Each structure stands twice: as structure tokens, then as C-alpha cells.
Amino acid sequence: MEFGWSDEDLAYRRELRAFLAAELPDDWAELSKDGPGSEAQARFSRDFAARLAARGWLTQHWPREYGGSDASPWRHAILSEEMWSRGEPRGPQYMNVNWIGPAIMKFGTEEQKRLHLERISRGDALWCQGFSEPEAGSDLAALRTLAIRDGDQYVVNGGKIWTSYANHAEFCFLLVRTDPDSKRHRGISVLLMPMDTPGVEIREIPAVVGERYFHEVFLTDARVPVSCRLGPEHEGWSVVTYALQYERVGSPRYARAALTLDQLAELARSQGVLDDAGVQEKLGQARALCEAARALTYRVIDQRARNQPPTADSNVARVAGTMADRAVAELALELFGPESLEYGTFGDAQFRMAMTAGVAVGATEIQLNLIATRFLGLPRA
Amino acid sequence: MDFELNDDQRAILEAVETLLEQRAGAARAVALASKGDYDAELEAALANAGFTDMALSEETGLLEAALVVEAVARAGGLAAIGAAALVAPHCAGRALPGPIALASAGERGPVRFGAHARTLLVAAADEARAVRVQPGDAETVASNFGYPMGRVRTDGGESLGAGSGARLRSAWRLALAAEATGTMRSALHITVEYLKQRRQFGHPIGSFQAVQHRLAECAVLVEGSRWLTYEAAWRGATAEASATAAAYALAAAHRVFSETHQLSGSIGFTREHDLHVFSMRLQALRLELDGVGGHQRALTRSRWTTA
Known about the structure:
CATH class of the domain at 167-304 in chain B: Mainly Alpha
Number of strands of chain A: 8
Strand content of chain B: 5-15%
CATH superfamily of the domain at 167-304 in chain B: Butyryl-CoA Dehydrogenase, subunit A, domain 3
Oligomer: heterodimer
CATH architecture of the domain at 167-304 in chain B: Up-down Bundle
Number of strands of chain B: 9
Largest sheet of chain A: 4 strands, mixed
CATH topology of the domain at 167-304 in chain B: Butyryl-CoA Dehydrogenase, subunit A, domain 3
CATH superfamily of the largest domain in chain A: Butyryl-CoA Dehydrogenase, subunit A, domain 3
CATH class of the largest domain in chain A: Mainly Alpha
Number of helices of chain A: 12
Strand order of the largest sheet of chain A: 1-4-5-8
Number of helices of chain B: 10
CATH topology of the largest domain in chain A: Butyryl-CoA Dehydrogenase, subunit A, domain 3
Helix content of chain B: 55-70%
Number of domains of chain A: 3
Order of helices and strands of chain B: HHHHHEEEEEEEHEEHHHH
Order of helices and strands of chain A: HHHHHHEEEEEEEEHHHHHH
Distance between the termini of chain A: 37 Å
Helix content of chain A: 40-55%
Structural class of chain A: alpha+beta
Strand content of chain A: 5-15%
CATH architecture of the largest domain in chain A: Up-down Bundle
Shape of chain B: globular
């Protein structure tokens, strides 16, 4: 066991922080107040991700043959922590580099690799994730969007919901049912669908948690070439399972929460209440939750770095991350008081981010189901 | 970063687990507790095999010692191994005559192992003091909380030097986190195994989601405690890392106590079921050294204040 960073890793983090200090504009706090899906931040990401790419950092964890440098999952984790804790200046592009790219490397045709990988690694590709449907949320395998083969095209009908970034995305990593008689996990395929395909309509869903956060995507006789299918027909579930191995713990929410907490402690100091026992206890409690989430996440990264298959340790880390995010958000409201009621303030921003923590990328209840059966070995209901 | 035990650590853990299988366990803890006894044999066996010297040896350190302390707690061992293996070495830099009890200066309440201790380590503001005690010096206190207790006098003794008080508190927090982790692991394990078997409404209780989610949250808290403990030990029981582990683990202890008892139903209140051996101890651990609030305040002070 070893809980320290190598000198190289420490130097890399310092370099990244210096880079962020230099590259993020003075009005970054304002610009990023609506989250990675906002107009401003998505636009900013094209420029920013390209600059990361120029440093060789955007897709450093990719294999060399696809323009990466085979960097360790740890180095990529450091990047993710620094990005997410500063409000994710990569915008939606973190998805591309984290798991869409690797899925294309594994299952893509030569044409798909040529079309997508170079563009993703250049920092100039906005994607969205077409998973959830109105009737298929936590129960993803209940998805109904149909893609019926018609010659060398699929005719797609159905709809996706809660689709972040759909308004900017050029491509959608779309899950469809290609076998209309199939049930559950069989008969699903993945389409790399261009978002300018006729028959694709987007409606923004006004959201409490931030501007341009959610969308509904309507698919009406959208014709997608068969050449856009990723992986074998009807075998999309295994493609998704593979892709999500790269996204075992999600965004490092604990890193942002921990940074917010440091700022809260500074605020408490400036208000003269840092010596107050009650304030100290709440800060300490929240800090311990952030640290546990970090340690549990690192354990999963360690498993990734060893090329071990995913385990329920990932679900443990996610639940811990949600606990940390919420504790810090609640404390932010308490310490700032009514100040946080103003939109875009520090407390408000943390609170909005934390609101989605237990739902985004897999509801906490699903994580708990998996911990109960896979980690504790309890019988299925 | 490396989250796996190395070969030596694995060998140490296997060896201590083998010893504990023979010399500890819930049944032995129940028998000892019924007479208010201390497990001097277990302490001697662990000491003779070198398990209490991990923190002082060249080849091993606090992390190996923490693994031992956690394992002893997991096995329900009724000996002051946290104090012997972690606290005394870190605070005094040497082994002290055991059993060792820990107390804050001026402590009026019962102290774990207080009536059996030969050394009392006292945390004063700046310094720690090692007080030699004789059998009969302390008053035995009857307790339902899983450990033999005694009321001690905290005056006198040999000063361990400036700054030793802070070292004592940090190592004490690390030991508490390690003991709570091992104790919680067993309490949760016993509960999970019972709820796999116990059937109501035609199904194992453990298959109901309302039950599963609460156990799963406990599992998250136990895992968090475990890794924060290992990290604090690896970091050499720094004030911040130890307070982090203790703040998390002792808060978790309360939750794990409540959930394991609630979900076990009436059997959990009996001495015929092993849960109480571990669960009741969690409450005793939770109250030491100013409790969860104390650990949280210590964490905040070490991280954000310069005082």
C-alpha cells in the first residue's frame, strides 16, 4: 500500500494548475456558472480542449496508435480532478475522451476511427449521450427507441430524454433497439448518429439546476447509415458495458466539493466563526466525507490501472461521492445564509451541482442495489 | 498510489488472523465479559509473536500495526492492542508495560481497560504522561459496553516531553479508527449473514430493498473508514489524517450500530447472538477522546487554523 503521489504526478498537478491559472479567463466564474452544458461553456470548451490537446494532455491516456501517450489512469485522474474542481472547462468533451473514444477504438470500423478519433483528440468534437428515455431511466434495458433496417440505413423512431449537451452536440452515442421483437439487453445496438440528421428534433427542458442542462431528443423517421453502427448489430449492450468500464466512478465530484469546502473555511475565518465549535464540527464532518470519497475513488482507479475488471467498489465510491457533495452543499447554504439565494453565487452554484449528484449517471438507489447484491452478497429481491 | 497489500502485509495479516482464530472470537469475548475480565493471554500471545511491535520495527510501521489492530477488533479480541501497537510506539517511541489504558487529563468517566492497566497514558494539553499503575489503584466499573472499564486517577506520571500530547491524541484517533473499522466490519457481517437466512413473508429479509439499501450505506461507511484508516497510518498518524479517519469512522460507528440493531430485530438484543459483542463496543469507542465532535474539531483545526 502506498498513498502518496510520485514526484512526477505532483509536478504534473502543479503544471496543470499553472496552466488553468493562465488559460481560464478572469470572468471564468461567471462564464461557468451554468455548468458544462451551457452555451458559454460549450463554446469555450472548443478553444480550451484544443489547447489541452496541443499540450498532449487531452487524450494522454489513449494508446499511442490513436495519438495518445499511454499515460496511466492516475495521470488522467489528476487531470479530471483539476478540471472538474474548476467547473469543467472541457465542457461536454470529457465524455468523448473518457469513454466514447475508447469504445470507438475497440469496436469502430476503420472509417469510424478516422472520422471520430482524430477529431476527438483535437478537442473539437461535441457529443451527447442518447441513453435515457421517458420510459427507460434507471431501467435502461427497457429502452424502446426503434431502428429498423432499410437497406443500408436504419430508420430511427423514438425519443431520448435528459440528454445533456444535445443542443451543441455534433454526434450522439445513441442506444437503439434494432430487433423489434427483442426484450431487455438483447437486440440493442449503438449508433454514432450525426445530430444534423433530418428527423432529429431537440427541445430544451427548463431546469432548476442550470441553464441548458437537459433536453429531449425526438427521433422521427431519422435515417442513419448502417455504417454509423458501432459494433455488431443487436450486441450494443456489450459495447456500452465495455465503454462504461472507462467511466467507473464518474466525475470526481469530491474534488470540487473539497475545493469548495476550503473556500467555505476561508469564509468562516473571514466572518470570525472558524473558532466556533459548531462550525468546526460541520466543516470537519464534510471534510471527512470528501476524503472518504477520494480514497474510495482512488481504490477504483487503482483497479483500473491494474486492468482489473470493474467491481461493486465503483458503486461504493459513487455513493460516497454523493454523500460528500451533498454535505458540502448543505454547509454552503448554512454558512452563507441568504447570500446563496442569489443565482450564480458560490453557495448557489455548489448547491445546484450537488442536487444532481444522487441521480446523474445512475441513481443512488441503483448503486445501493448493486452494493447489496454484489458487495454484500444479499439475495436479489 | 497502490491500494493492495504487499506480500509482507498479506503475510502479517494472515498470521495474525490465524492466531486470532485460536485465541479470540465472539464466544471467548462473551465468556470474558461475563466476569469483567481482560484477555491477558491474548495480549501476551500477540506480543510474543511480535504483532504489537510493528510500529517500532525497521521493516514495518504504523500501517502494519493498524492492520493488526483492525484484525484484533474484527475478531472481538478483548485486549488493549490499539494502545500497545499504535499509541505507545507513536507517542513514547517505545513499548510500555501493558495493558495500557488511555485517558485525557482529568477524565472522570470510566476508561476502557482502566482497572486492568499497568500503564496509563494521559493526554494533557501539551504533553503526554505515562503513569505506572498497580492492580487495585483503579476502581472497577461495571459496564454493558463490551470492554472492562475502570475509573482512573490521571495525575502524576512521567512526562513524555513537549509535543507528546499531540502525538498521543493523533495516534489515539488512529487506533480508534482502526478499532471501529474492525468492529464495524464484524457487526455488519453478522447482520448481513443473519438477514440472508432469516425469512419473513416467505422471503429472506435481506432480499427486501428497504433493508438492502440501509446495509449498503453501512457498507460504504465501513469501506470509507477502512481506507481512511490505512491512509492515516501510512501518513504516519499526522494530526489531520488521523482526525479525518476518526471523524469518519466514529460517525459511521453510530450509524452501523443503529442499523445493525434495528435490522436484526429482537435477536440482536440477546447474548445468544454475537452482534452485541461488536455493536456495544462501537458506542464505547464513539465516546472516547471527546467523541465524534472532538475528532471533527481536531480535523478542522489541523487543516484550516494555524493555532
